[in-house]
Design goal:
The chain has helices spanning 10-23, 60-63, 72-85, 95-107, 121-136, 153-158, 192-210, 236-247, 299-304, 320-335, 338-360, 399-410, 432-450, and strands at 39-43, 46-49, 54-57, 114-118, 140-144, 174-177, 215-221, 250-254, 278-281, 293-297, 364-370, 373-381, 386-387, 413-414, 416-418, 421-424. The strands form three sheets. The chain has a seven-stranded mixed sheet with strand order 4-10-9-8-7-5-6, sandwiched between helices. Strands 11, 12, 13, 15 and 16 form a five-stranded antiparallel sheet that branches. A four-stranded mixed sheet has the order 1-2-3-14. By secondary structure, the chain is α/β, with parallel strands linked by helices. It contains 13 helices and 16 strands. Helix 4 (95-107) crosses helix 10.
């Protein structure tokens, strides 16, 4: 869709900003050190402020507006559901809830045919882990160092990145391990095949020393998102599946970010022909229009709770407005071939365009991704692969990435920046023209990053 021209009203923007600064407590932030942009509106792949500045959103919100902002079909579905049945308790059979579950189950791989609804991805992870522990009677869960699974108690302890550190109580029964990542290999591999084999051996070794019989589950992001969009090498996920089967361990795939079209398939697992026992989802299931997440459950796990009560639930589980938005979003994805578009844009525009930028910019060490899910690993030196900024940098140490981000915004692109990376994660229905617009803005911003290379 063609976005409306922004309406300029600086006074209204100032009022919004003042109220925000007085009363809103923002996540992941030192409250006195942030300066949130006051957003006046959004449509399609764009949003704008009250001063008339329009931005192409290469973050998709927090990688969730897979069909863009304000899609009229989904907005109308929410409005219609609000007029018919705005809310209802989760213990009842509600049309929107039942239909959303049916449509999701039709698209999940294998026999993941039961859907437990949550309000978002972190709660989905919490409940998936609880199901695994109850199903196996075991406690420990293995997760990857390069990962993010959410901010609730268990989910943050499972997370591998530094956001875990202030809340890591060391008692959540979590053991972390290294997953394959050839560009920054912990296994000193020279090829993808070596990296895969060594990573699987490392997992086997971890199980041997932890005691495989004590492990309830292994949880992996199918394609890690915030941690860097490292697509696993061929055979790795199948190898993890085989290990889980051999030791009676529940295999959980976290598709909160990678699911619902982001990688050019309904689920990233579809690229690897692997079926987990449990799969978490959220974000793209309804493009974030109303908070919704869930766990897709295999027949084997579901059978555990056939005559035994599952000890978990949420007041707003399967909220009618959220589920109506999911039904409409899935239909839009089918009707408008959003999944196919994400694959096409990745193969013909984003992938080639980002690789071309890498050839010209000394700050780009590696390009990774698929579909509408890409990362640029920014470096000080291509030969040494030294990151452009140190791990978990802040303040002056993060100046190169801050300068890159400011340059992108100055050129009308809102970038996804995390540590030494920028991610290109636009809406899955982004047009070729919009994707090329984003690449042009990245080109300019990367020239700023180049100034910090050696």
């Amino acid at each position: 869709m063609t976005p409306h021209a922004p309406h300029v009203d600086p006074a209204a923007g100032a009022a919004v900003k003042a109220a925000d600064r007085a009363h809103v407590f923002h996540s992941w932030s030192a409250q006195g050190l942030i300066d949130p942009l006051a957003v006046a509106g959004a449509e399609g792949a764009y949003f704008w402020d009250y001063d008339g500045n329009r931005y192409l959103d290469f973050t998709s919100g927090l990688v969730y507006t897979n069909i863009g902002y304000q899609h009229p079909t989904v907005v109308a579905a929410i409005q219609e559901q609000a007029g018919k049945l705005a809310t209802f308790a989760p213990a009842f059979a509600i049309e929107a809830r039942s239909e959303a579950a049916r449509l999701i189950a039709e698209r999940t791989p294998g026999d993941l045919d039961k859907i437990f609804f949550t309000n978002g991805g972190a709660e989905a992870v919490e409940n998936a882990v609880r199901m695994a522990r109850l199903h196996t009677g075991r406690t420990k869960v293995l997760s990857a160092y390069r990962s993010y699974h959410g901010a609730t108690s268990t989910a943050i302890n499972l997370t591998g990145d530094p956001r875990r550190w202030p809340s890591d109580n060391g008692s959540a029964g979590v053991v972390r391990f290294w997953t394959p990542f050839l560009y920054r290999s912990p296994f000193h591999s020279a090829t993808e095949a070596e990296e895969c084999a060594r990573a699987l051996q490392h997992l086997e070794d971890t199980l041997a020393f932890e005691g495989a019989a004590t492990i309830a589950a292994i949880i992996l992001e199918t394609v890690p998102g915030t941690a860097g969009i490292m697509t696993p090498p061929p055979g790795y996920l199948a190898g993890v599946r085989e290990i889980c089967d051999r030791y009676g361990i529940v295999f959980i795939l976290d598709e909160v970010m990678a699911g619902f079209g982001r990688t050019g398939k309904w689920f990233a697992a579809d690229h690897f022909d692997v079926v987990p026992d449990l799969m978490t989802f959220a974000k793209g299931v309804n493009s974030g229009y109303v908070p919704l997440g869930g766990v897709a459950i295999s027949a084997k796990i579901a059978a555990t709770f056939e005559t035994r009560a599952y000890p978990g639930g949420l007041t707003y589980s399967g909220h009618p407005l959220a589920c109506a938005a999911a039904v409409a979003t899935i239909q839009v994805m089918e009707d408008e071939k959003v999944i196919e578009n994400a694959a096409h844009i990745g193969e013909t525009v984003l992938g080639p365009g980002l690789r071309e930028l890498a050839e010209r910019h000394p700050s780009v060490g590696e390009v990774r991704g698929l579909g509408a899910f890409w990362a640029l690993d920014l470096v000080r030196n291509k030969e040494t692969r030294e990151p452009l900024v140190p791990y978990n940098a802040s303040g002056e140490a993060n100046a190169p990435m801050a300068a890159f981000g400011a340059a992108a915004k100055k050129n009308g692109l809102w970038p996804f920046v995390n540590m030494n990376r920028t991610h290109a994660v636009p809406a899955c229905n982004v047009t070729e023209a919009e994707a090329k617009e984003g690449l042009a803005a990245l080109d300019v911003a990367l020239s700023v990053a180049d100034e910090y290379t050696v």
